[in-house]
Amino acid sequence: MKIERNPTRPVWVRDLQIGGGAPISYQSMTATRTQDVEATVALTTALAAAGADLVRIAIDSRKDLEALIQVRERTTARLVVDLQENYPLAEHVAPHVDKIRYNPGHLHHLERDKPVEDKVQALADIAAKNDCALRIGVNCGSVAPDFLERYPEDPMEALVASALFHAELLDRYGFARYVVSLKDSDPRKVIEANKRFARERPDVPIHLGVTEAGLPPDGVIKTRIAFEQLLSAGIGDTLRVSLTVPNHRKHEEIEAGRRIVEDVYAGRFRSVPEFFGQGLNIISCPSCSRVENEAFVELAEKVKEMSAYAAGRNVTIAVMGCRVNGPGETDDADLGLWCGPTHVNLKRKEESLGSFPYDEVLDRLRDELDSLIAARV
């Protein structure tokens, strides 16, 4: 199938070209604790061997940084660092990685008196000095508050406007070596957001992903829905399939991505039933080094099994593995769980229902699910 790709400019991540007509590249992310250097090196190596062109590692503290330096010394993989809420670490991280991902929605957490423009300029200067690329990573669950206030009735416009604003800032500071991602857990919103952005900035390479796609096979299906529509429209230069799987299965993200791209370019489109997206919807993050208890993945699987009896109900259950994305990205779910080291926080929309041990939360979730179903009868 002949696909006319968007005329994006080339962005180099070390020796890898993203955009500018280069082949689509594949990414994944380590799910080990970053400070467990042996495990992180092993998973990084495994992902690279499986075909990951880029491997992302989360950094949240000085100890994580010290571990990252050791990982860098022991792998030749192209490394991307995820700064999350700790953007000031960029200066210390940049000499050891090939690309930095920052989330515009997290820049307000630290140095609140400093204008966001100054923070972005600092990131651009650091990246330029250290021969790094940048990714502007905008997520549905953590859009910057000022953009949500500006577009209170249209969160999708807030998402796109934030991405456009940060692209404009980097352009203003003379830094063109960046890509943008606009992610949501709903594939239809991913399609809409990326098409809106691409219309405004067809020159900017786009990283595709459906965040918190969840457990396979549903997570692959959700991702395929978005990718088929976007790739066939020429949108997308690099991508990740975000799946909730244990560490020894993280390579499945790369394999799923390759299958989708190969199918699209061969003209093989999988029909999606009209009812897809209705009924029970389990959202879960793909796990990463921020997960504070590896039991999170097993819990997500148990939630899926337990809630199967509600398959015909229009209910969304979100299972998040960390404190960074957990609170915000469970707010829109009918029932949400975000997992800490020893307890799981249970929510109904934005309302907290309490914190429960891992071995008790499933029963409480079932009670809440039953109550929700009964209230809608």
Mean pLDDT: 91
Helix content estimate: 25-40%
In whole angstroms, how far apart are the ends?
Answer: 47 Å
Low-confidence runs of at least 5 consecutive residues:
none
Q: Can you tell me the CATH architecture of the largest domain?
A: Alpha-Beta Barrel
Which CATH C-level class of the largest domain is it? Answer: Alpha Beta
- Which homologous superfamily in CATH is the superfamily of the largest domain? Dihydropteroate synthase-like
CATH third-tier fold name of the largest domain: TIM Barrel
Q: Beta-strand level of the residues, as a percent range?
A: 15-25%
**Helix and strand sequence:** EEEHEHEHEHEHHEHEHEHEHEHEEEH
Q: Structural class, please?
A: alpha/beta
Strand segment tally = 15
Q: What's the overall geometry?
A: globular
- The biggest beta sheet, please? 8 strands, parallel, barrel
Strand order of the largest sheet: 3-4-5-6-7-8-9-10
Domain module count: 2
Give the helix tally: 12
Using only CA atoms, what is the Rg?
A: 20 Å
Descriptive report:
With 377 residues, the chain is of the alpha/beta class. It folds into 2 domains: 11-265, Dihydropteroate synthase-like (TIM Barrel), CATH 3.20.20.20; 281-376, 2-Layer Sandwich (Sulfite Reductase Hemoprotein, domain 1). Helices cover 38% and strands 18% of the residues. The chain is built from 12 helices and 15 strands. The chain has helices at residues 37-49, 62-73, 90-93, 116-129, 145-150, 155-172, 187-200, 218-231, 251-265, 295-306, 326-329, 358-376; strands at 11-13, 16-18, 25-29, 54-58, 79-82, 99-102, 133-139, 178-183, 206-208, 238-239, 281-284, 316-320, 335-339, 343-348, 351-357. It has an 8-stranded parallel beta barrel with strand order 3-4-5-6-7-8-9-10, surrounded by 6 helices. A 5-stranded mixed sheet has the order 11-12-13-14-15. Helix 4 (116-129) links the parallel strand 6 (99-102) and strand 7. Helix 1 packs across helix 2. The longest helix is centred in the last third of the chain and has 19 residues, at 358-376. The radius of gyration is 20 Å and the shape is globular. 49% of the residues are buried.
